[in-house]
Amino acid sequence: PWFALGMGLQALVAQLEYFRMAIIQGATPARKIVLATSAVMMATACGWPGLHELAFPLAATWMMLWLLLMRRECSTISDISTTLMGLFYTAYLPSWWVRLRC
């Protein structure tokens, strides 16, 4: 559990840095969804490895629905791709390290 907590904190810091760079470039990613999903992915990777496989597809679907249907302003391709890549590189890949370790 300590490794998962450490990796979770590292992933949150990496996400904040990645999204800050994206916002400077003009994109508006769904930061709160990715931050929440990162915590869920770390918890499922350590506690319930069988459910870890479901976390990324469900989070990506949730993110797409929010960006395309529930947002007040129209989302651009850069918003969607920035959010998806942030979810993949800073949350999903580190959660696999947690799954291998726990």
What's a quick, concise take on this entry?
With 102 residues, this protein is mostly helical. The protein is 86% helix and 0% strand.
Helix/strand layout:
Layout: H1 2-25, H2 31-47, H3 49-70, H4 77-101
Helix pairs in contact: 1-2, 1-4, 2-3, 2-4, 3-4
Report on this model:
The protein is mainly alpha-helical and 102 residues long. It is 86% helix and 0% strand. Helix 1 (2-25) runs antiparallel to helix 2 (31-47), helix 1 runs antiparallel to helix 4 and helix 2 packs parallel to helix 4. It is globular, with a radius of gyration of 14 Å. The mean pLDDT is 89.
Query: What does the main sheet amount to?
Result: none
Assembly type of the shown chains?
single chain
Q: Helicity, in percent? A: over 70%
Name the helix and strand elements from N-terminus to C-terminus, one letter apiece.
HHHH
Distance between the termini: 7 Å
What amount of the residues lies in strands?
A: under 5%
Low-confidence stretches: none
> In total, how many beta strands?
0
What's the mean pLDDT score?
A: 89
> Given the C-alpha coordinates, what overall shape results?
globular
Radius of gyration: 14 Å
* Derived structural class: mainly alpha
Q: How many H/I helices?
A: 4
